[in-house]
């Protein structure tokens, strides 16, 4: 098995929450980059169901969405023969290392996490300790695999910095234990904005369903959302700070077609939104069509998905255990 034997390669780890349907933002900011890296690196990708329960989930929906994210990993090009794909709750070492790292994380530094502040404002009736502790579990996810690189959207940068601080503190006390992870953030697409309010991040939890595009949306819904997308007062199709709506659409179009920002601006020079918005919609429909179709097929084959996540958990569990044993020994736990 490549991950166990190939120690020369660097390691990549990332995770996605099954807390709802995946959006175009999740895809362009993170998942799109996962398969690009699976040839040169040992790649480990997780469906982080334990993170998802920091906000209330319907149990049946959570189970369904967990399998859907796994299927989407494969539909987006991840090959279970090359990358380790697994479900977080199947590898107990995540919770176990999470506990130890809690004892090396300062209350003050965890309190500064902006995602915690945003989420606790949004879920004021359920500001649970898990929500506060979320980034420490995320640090455990990353550090368990001696990860070199973490592909994520820019909203996760602060969490990766925290993981680095925790690793550095632990290494400082006990000598080198964890590899220092680096974020891998794409130049274009690191923050896809809402189509309804381009000053806010595209998010599946947006109350306005016109703000996000889901990977499983039907073509007619995708077209409608792009045609309605909020743009700016003048009709030039250029990237500019005072044109957040058009700038966002240009990034999406560039990523969907593989063109550069300059090529897109040139292509639509002298044209208006009437040409541009449907073109973006069509490009996204074509980008997502194969992913949706492959996901639908995979979801019909539950036995295959089960085989993938079982094997994935076994491989991940083996790697995670090595780090956890080292950590337990260093902090002074008696060997069992
Ligand atoms: P999550 O599930 O919120 O999002 C999954 C990935 O999608 C990226 N993303 C975006 N990128 C660009 N534009 C957007 N509008 C957008 N919305 C989301 C996120 O940055 C993320 O990369 N805490 C993580 C999950 C996690 C994790 C980990 C990630 C748990 N443990 C360890 C990396 C390593 C999260 O909530 O992602």
Describe the protein in words.
This protein is mostly helical and 336 residues long. 52% of the residues lie in helices and 7% in strands. The chain folds into two domains: 11-189 and 302-331, HUPs (Rossmann fold); 209-295, Tyrosyl-Transfer RNA Synthetase (Orthogonal Bundle). The chain contains 14 helices and five strands. The strands form two sheets. A three-stranded parallel sheet has the order 1-2-3. Strands 4-5 form a two-stranded parallel sheet. Helix 9 (157-174) links the parallel strand 4 and strand 5. Helix 5 (93-102) packs parallel to helix 14 and helix 8 crosses helix 9. The longest helix has 30 residues, at 302-331.
Overall mean pLDDT score? Answer: 95
Q: What is the N-to-C succession of helices and strands?
A: HEHEHHEHHHHEHEHHHHH
Tell me the CATH architecture of the largest domain: 3-Layer(aba) Sandwich
Number of strands: 5
Under the CATH scheme, which class of the largest domain? Alpha Beta
CATH H-level name of the largest domain... which superfamily? HUPs
The total count of helices amounts to 14
Write the layout of secondary structure elements.
Elements: H1 2-5, E1 11-16, H2 24-29, E2 42-47, H3 49-52, H4 59-75, E3 84-87, H5 93-102, H6 107-111, H7 114-122, H8 129-144, E4 149-151, H9 157-174, E5 182-184, H10 219-227, H11 244-257, H12 261-267, H13 273-299, H14 302-331
Parallel strand pairs: 1-2, 2-3, 4-5
The protein binds tryptophanyl-5'AMP.
């Amino acid at each position: 098995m490549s991950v166990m034997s190939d120690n020369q390669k660097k390691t990549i780890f990332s995770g996605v929450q099954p807390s709802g349907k995946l959006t175009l933002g999740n895809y362009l900011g993170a998942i799109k980059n996962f398969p690009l890296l699976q040839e040169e690196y040992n790649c480990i990708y997780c469906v982080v169901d334990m993170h998802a329960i920091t906000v209330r989930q319907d149990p049946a929906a959570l189970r369904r969405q967990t399998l859907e994210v796994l299927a989407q990993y494969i539909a987006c090009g991840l090959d279970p023969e090359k990358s380790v794909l697994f479900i977080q709750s199947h590898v107990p070492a995540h919770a176990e290392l999470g506990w130890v790292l809690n004892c090396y994380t300062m209350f003050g530094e965890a309190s500064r996490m902006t995602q915690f502040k945003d989420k606790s404002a949004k879920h004021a009736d359920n500001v649970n300790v898990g929500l506060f502790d979320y980034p420490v579990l995320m640090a455990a996810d990353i550090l368990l695999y001696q990860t070199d690189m973490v592909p994520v959207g820019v909203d996760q940068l602060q969490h990766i910095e925290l993981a680095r601080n925790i690793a550095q503190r632990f290494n400082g006390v006990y000598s080198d234990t964890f590899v220092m992870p680096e974020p891998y953030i794409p130049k274009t697409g690191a923050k896809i904005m809402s189509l309804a309010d381009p000053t806010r991040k595209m998010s599946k939890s947006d109350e306005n369903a016109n703000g996000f595009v889901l990977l499983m949306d039907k073509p007619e819904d995708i077209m409608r959302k792009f045609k309605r997308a909020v743009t700016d007062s003048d009709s030039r199709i250029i990237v500019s700070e005072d044109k957040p709506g058009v700038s966002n659409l240009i990034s999406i179009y560039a990523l969907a077609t593989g063109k550069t920002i300059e090529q897109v601006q040139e292509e639509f020079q002298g044209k208006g939104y009437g040409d541009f918005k449907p073109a973006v919609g069509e490009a996204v429909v074509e980008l997502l069509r194969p992913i949706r179709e492959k996901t639908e097929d995979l979801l019909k084959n539950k036995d295959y998905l089960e085989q993938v996540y079982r094997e994935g958990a076994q491989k991940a569990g083996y790697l995670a255990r090595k780090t956890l044993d080292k950590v337990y020994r260093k902090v002074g736990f008696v060997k069992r």
